[in-house]
Model the fold of this input.
Amino acid sequence: MNTYAEVLLWAIPGFLVLVLVEILYGYFTKKIAYTFMDTLASLSSGMTNILKDVLGLGILLVSYPFLLENIALWNMETTLGVYLIAFICIDFASYLIHLLNHKINIFWNQHLIHHSSEEFNLACALRQSISNLVGFAAIFLIPAALLGVPSEVIITLSPIHLFAQFWYHTQHIGKLGFLEYIIVTPSQHRVHHAINPIYIDKNLSAIFCIWDRMFGTFQEELDSEPPVYGTLKPALSWNPFWINFQHLYILARDAWHTKNWRDKLRLWFMPTGWRPKDVALLFPFEIREINENQKYKPHYDRNWKIIAAFHFISLVIMLLFFLSKFNELTTSTQINFGLLIFVSIFGFTSLMDYHSWGPKFEILRGIVFLGLLFFLKTPFLNQTPLWFSYFLISYFVLSAAIGFWAKTKKPNRKLALY
Done:
């Protein structure tokens, strides 16, 4: 994870610059594809995913090195050809995992957040999951393991394969001629993110679109059917933690309340969206209309936007500092620092969702973290430069102050929903 942290230290500023370029391009061409809080929610979600990955949170059921050691038919030398074979194997595995995530109830939970944005832009590409806590993806790399592709090749190519999926999350690039028959393009991926009936669960490939064409999941973007983005059951939140686990909560609630014991067990592995009839009547939810204008868009005045921007910029500084010092921090300090950022993201996004308890949570968060910094004399402060300690103290003082200010505004969740 140390190497991955170093890579991210360079990748994050690059992604943010490209997002800014797309925002400016949309502004000057009057083709704006961004809204303020949706963008911050996407980028905040990306931060939680980064923290989960660098901290190694989760359980690994099977690893690629284990498969390689036990089922490889022969050993392959590390050549350019091996890298090509490995990349194709990773891409096919990605297609299969993606298909599973879309088709099975329990697995949809770990992918839902990537589709939860009702916009489609480069920031949306960074909406990544923290609910994929059980690692089994190596199973889909069995072809590579049988061929004897070295582990270091898979490790090298995996982040490259992931980052290569960033560019096509845009509305500003049209169809690309003959490339539409070879690689995944922005046009194809717009279809994938759409909730139009003709587009649902289509175009699941990551890099090479041949998998969709082979297995019948390809759909061309139609001029007569403009994509409408998001999920059929809207997330109605900016909070990445709630978005990540809300589908799991619904499944657990349905399993608890349904009277049929068979349904209690099978609903987890039924097609995505399937619910027992009794709980569907007991806990009905509204399916979103295919309407570009029907979006989650609470109104924020300038003060609320300044508050959101303050939190986001502060958290980006914290994350970049964390990654830059990752190799120097003790394990306990890494976990504590990660928890600090996790809780802060939860707090400010809940506040922006207009939860009535949001201001109280922010006041408590500011006071508790200040207390930990001042009175417990955590080792964390001893491992950080003086300027960063002052930065953290200022941030938590202002967070508590914002909480008191927000409390006077009496935020009401209904204001966000209607």
User: Anything to note?
Assistant: The chain has a mean pLDDT of 94. The longest helix spans residues 2-29. The chain has 20 helices and two strands. Residues 62 and 186 are 33 Å apart (CA to CA).
